[in-house]
Amino acid sequence: MTKTSKDGIVTQWELHTIRVREARVGPGAERDELKVTNSVGIIADDYTGALMVACYLEAAGIYAPLVFHPDAEVAESSVVVAGTRARTIEAATAVSNVVEFLDGSAMGGSSRFVYKPSASFDSTPSGNIGPVADCLAQRTGWAPTFMAAGFPEVAITTHLGYLFYRGKIVTASIKRFDPLTPMPDPDLVRFLSQQTDRGVELVSHLDMCRGRRFVENKISALSSKGAGHIFFDVSDEADLRLVADLAARSKSVFIASDPVAVAFAKNIVGNSAIARAAPRHVSGPAAVLVGTVAPVIQRQLAAFSEVHPVLALDLTQSKNPEAIASDAMEWAAEHVGSRPFAIATSRDQSDVERAHAAYGSIGAARRAEEVLGILAREFRARGIKRFLVAGGETSGSVVSALGIKAVRGFPEGPLGTGFCVTTGEDPISLFLKPGKFGSDDVLLEALDHMR
């Protein structure tokens, strides 16, 4: 079913919405009586990005629970955000994880879905953005897929298909030091084309400067030509608004960076958004866990160490992760409950290089995540109530280790996004921070903010 209802035939997704409506409120229910027809499911490829989106939506007055399990229980909402660990795992597993959320009860009533990679579409030549986009297109029957990378507010942009990171072409930026996704090709159209057999075409910033009608005609031409995916430049805020609006009005799968996904969701739910009272932080002992190696976090740890103790682990020692964590617990014992402290899996880039030489980039990352996951469970058992976690993959390992299924994000504030509190009994507060974001004193300020 591919034609519109104007022709007397419903689309595949309209059929899905009718079935959801009849299952929940019975046949014949009016569209404006059913909030689910306007609901949006946003599936992010890491936990910090998922939380960032949830916080932006909360700041816009839209209740947006964040789930880490496909069947997590959440209150009725206009938008549900899901955090996965799909960025760096094997492509087939990443696709499977996304499908679990598509089919899970947490966002099973959503009528539109967005897959949200990082703002710079961090990935490898083999995936996982292309495979997920192909899967979503196949499941919905919608083609071509729309793709849009960029975050102009923080100087992450795309122009003529090329990715610029903080004002520099990505291969000349600090992004080139990323141990898992260094993005060796700045041409995202060419780079993404390695991840899919369906082809990637470009709608450039120059195209969008010629106006909506020109862009709509180009989309139509590319679609008629059989384009599998259409990539849109996001060079500035005007590009961002236009592509989000075009996606909201289309019947296309959308693969979108943080601010584009937020703009899309706001366009879909409009004035019907469900709002709820803001959450409150939990007071209690705090710990900082750092698994990222970005230069930014090194400066942040240096500022933190001027006030609180910091331990840097050596992942290259012959001990297994449990033994490394046990040694760290001995060091932390005198601090737990008495003062904040931080544990990092490296001191500097040289530590990272040694770990990579010993275990490979993926192996070293998984070793670090395992150690920090063990420590998170131990600290939680000993009464830690506030966790500050740096790094998207690290955040995923800590949240998973703690068995957290759902959180409520706090609206964006003076320190930006990243704050949340778990739902259910015995809550804890968390600050999940992307490794490359924040001022030098953000860890210290976050501690004060979470009181």
- Please identify, by name, the CATH architecture of the largest domain: 3-Layer(aba) Sandwich
Estimated structural class: alpha/beta
Segments where pLDDT lies below 50 for 5+ residues?
1-38
Instruction: Walk across the major sheet and give the strand order.
Output: 9-10-5-11-4-1-3-2-16-17-18-15-12-14-13
- The CATH superfamily label of the largest domain reads Putative sugar-binding, N-terminal domain
Q: Span from first to last CA?
A: 54 Å
Shape: globular
Beta content: 15-25%
Biggest β-sheet description: 15 strands, mixed
* CATH top level label of the largest domain: Alpha Beta
Q: With helices defined by DSSP (H or I, 4 residues minimum), what is the helix count?
A: 15
What is the mean predicted local confidence, pLDDT?
Answer: 89
Query: How many separate domains?
Result: 2
For the secondary structure, the number of strands is: 18
Helix fraction by DSSP (H/I, runs of at least 4): 25-40%
Molecular structure report:
The chain has helices spanning 12-25, 47-59, 91-103, 129-140, 188-193, 205-208, 212-224, 237-249, 258-269, 295-305, 321-332, 349-359, 361-381, 392-401, 442-449, and strands at residues 40-44, 66-67, 79-83, 112-116, 145-148, 156-159, 162-165, 168-169, 200-203, 229-232, 254-256, 286-290, 310-312, 342-344, 386-390, 406-409, 419-422, 429-433. Helices cover 38% and strands 16% of the residues. α2 crosses α9 (258-269), α8 crosses α9 (258-269) and α11 crosses α13 (361-381). The strands form two sheets. A 15-stranded mixed sheet has the order 9-10-5-11-4-1-3-2-16-17-18-15-12-14-13, with helices on both faces. It has a three-stranded antiparallel sheet with strand order 6-7-8, with no helix packed on it. The model is unreliable at 1-38 (pLDDT under 50). It is α/β, with parallel strands linked by helices. It is globular, with a radius of gyration of 22 Å. A hairpin with a 2-residue loop joins β6 and β7 (162-165). It folds into two domains: 34-272, Putative sugar-binding, N-terminal domain (Rossmann fold); 286-449, Four-carbon acid sugar kinase, nucleotide binding domain (Molybdenum Cofactor Biosythetic Enzyme, Chain A, 3-Layer(aba) Sandwich), CATH 3.40.980.
